[in-house]
Amino acid sequence: MKTRLGKRLRALFEAIPEHGYDSVWDLCCDHGRLGMALLETDRTPWVHFNDSVPGILIDLEERLRRYGAEHYQLHTGPAEALALPDAGKHLLVLAGVGDELTVRILQSLSQHKTSAQFDWLLMPTHNLFQVRQFLIDQNWGLLEEGWVFENGRGYEWLRVTPAGGQRLENPAPFWDARNAEHRQHLTKLLKHARQQQRQTDSADAGIIAQAYAAALDQS
């Protein structure tokens, strides 16, 4: 594989089942590098790239042409406005954006009425508690989940489906306060939630703070 992936993108790449979907939609995680890696390894029959910045896709198309890539399509515009297929089984990958945009895109595209199946692979940059809660409230099912640390930051990823199934937990069940790296990550999340609680007097921030405090107490 020519495209070099950091730890975050490598985790997403490995979370995509080989030949498990008719297409994978890279909602331009790190300028399309994930989709490039998928094309290079023939992991999926077709890759769609999306970004709202035309210049990013122009540069990406030039790289794809130099590589001689086939079986891909480029889509310029906001992810919320994507025209999705009406049949088949597809995976949409959304990473590198915050919780509010993640939820907005999920809400918009999940309203697409079709016989196709759309699963999602998510890795928000922050506030995954809110994303998890949205998925729980919408009765989405968990297919697989995990975490990765890169440059001292912890990232959770989720592969989920609106078709229902295994229920998600919030916070994630895999964090282990006995692990120093995990404990540092949970402490950081708790500190942020408490800051939000003091600044906004938000009931939601209080619930999040309690949840992470409880996760830290499990040792």
Which key features would you list for this structure?
alpha/beta; 7 strands; seven-stranded mixed β-sheet; 2 domains
Q: What is the domain tally?
A: 2
Largest sheet: 7 strands, mixed
> Hey, roughly how much beta strand do the residues contain?
15-25%
- Spatially, the strands of the biggest sheet line up as 3-2-1-4-5-7-6
The CATH architecture of the largest domain is 3-Layer(aba) Sandwich
Task: Quickly count the helices.
Answer: 7
Describe this structure as you would to a colleague.
The chain is an alpha/beta fold. The protein has 2 domains: 7-172, Rossmann fold, CATH 3.40.50.150; 175-219. Helices cover 40% and strands 21% of the residues. It is built from 7 helices and 7 strands. Strands 3-2-1-4-5-7-6 form a 7-stranded mixed sheet, with helices on both faces. Strand 6 and strand 7 (153-161) form a beta hairpin. Helix 1 (7-14) packs across helix 2, helix 4 (99-109) packs parallel to helix 5 (128-137) and helix 6 (180-200) runs antiparallel to helix 7 (203-217). The radius of gyration is 18 Å and the shape is globular. The N and C termini lie far apart (40 Å).
How is this fold's topology laid out?
Layout: H1 7-14, E1 23-26, H2 33-41, E2 47-51, H3 54-67, E3 72-76, E4 89-95, H4 99-109, E5 117-123, H5 128-137, E6 141-150, E7 153-161, H6 180-200, H7 203-217
Helix pairs in contact: 1-2, 4-5, 6-7
Quick summary:
The chain is of the alpha/beta class and 219 residues long.
